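Quick note —
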Amino acid sequence: MSGRSGKDSRGRQHRHKGSSGNGRASSRGGGTPLAIAGVPVAVGQQVVCDIVGLTHEGEGVGRVEGYTLFVRGALPEEKVRAEVVSIGKSFGKARMTELLVTSSGRRDAPCPIYDTCGGCQLQHLDYAEQLRWKRQHVVDNLVRIGKLAVAGEDGGEGVIVHPVIGMNDPWRYRNKAQVPIGFGDGGLIGGFYEQGSNDIVEMDACLIQQEENEVLVRAVKEAARLLDISAYNRSTGHGLLRHVVVRHARTTGQRMVVLVTNGANIPHVQELVGLIREKVPGVASVCQNVNTAVTPVVFGEQTRVLWGEDVIYDDIAGIQFAISPRSFFQVNPEQTERLYSKAVEYASLTGEEIVVDAYCGAGTISLFLARYARRVYGVEIIPEAVEDARRNALLNGIHNVEFAVGAAEVVMPRWQADGITPDVIVVDPPRKGCDPALISTMLELRPERIVYVSCNPSTLARDLKLLEDGGYRAVEVQPVDMFPHTGHVECVVGICRVDT
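Predicted structure written out below.
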């Protein structure tokens, strides 16, 4: 969720400074050099840049005498004047000071603090252009990192990269908000981190967040202020309330709030719960998670129910899911259905296949696949996620699935020794991509097909090259826009063994 600014009576934006200060690139702090031999620009210099592309974070890629400068807010085909703020041997960063030539795709960002908040990167780019750029971002990674031929590039043949599946209405799509809490001029604030910073920008509205979550976050902040509950200070490690995590189930309307605290004791806890319920009728679950570690990780290990249920329920394509406070559940349910439907399509299931779902999480893809396969085996290293997966299978009366805890590269050979040989393997790894040992294991098991669901085109391209070197061929790639107005793009890739 992107942060949105709140202002005091004098119109000032509230911020909380984290332990590392404002986190911005500095031309003089941290040993940043002002000039480097052979680099044609120096820190503090005003330069004119031609913008030739976008980074995966949505920054403009500028060129000055062949040197690369990343310029936030600049778009391809634009010319900008910018101040250099940091440099290295290969690239630097600059702050745009004047727009000299404007792209036809530039739009006014509707969010009032878009220039401050770090949650969105592309609101200033027309949505159709966002989708075109995201496809090109995938293509560029496949060619540059994966060394793959892409159909249509330079008139050649190769893997097909389809146009990105976008949203008809690319706003208000997020069903979950994770809001850091801190101090501002007026006391407790909650919002999101400023771009490149540990400063919190107070937010009361976010255009990519479901409005139901906005209401719930506001209610928690108001109740905490009224009861004088302290905000966590990242610099000192003192204070109680660290994060507010809220979820809204699209199909059932149920809402959950999780208070992440720096300690187990919440003063006036019953009054706090009562105020939240009074302000937001329909809340089904109020939970507490305790995290006393000095870490940017949101959740700690201990969670308890303060009031109501321990889960809420949502539905994707007719499959019901129980969502606990720490469950992984896709934040854009509309696009999730499209993403997983494409994964099922690329698996080419006839009802006779044995399928392994590596990185199965809470079993979302596994349960989709189980409707079309003979049997699905899911494996996940996080025990709590496997518990959720088993509960979701029972909830839906799906019995042709089995889940195991462990690393996929360890569990899958054990299954094979028991006579379980997969026809299809589905992987949905984190941003770092597949573990090299898992790639090796898949090549040893030699399934007919592999379906790769990716949230990072660069690690996807790296892994596809390894699979192609091992006797597989990437057939087609379907990008899906799970996070409109951000630099992220997810992909589903259909991969077949070359001898099939």
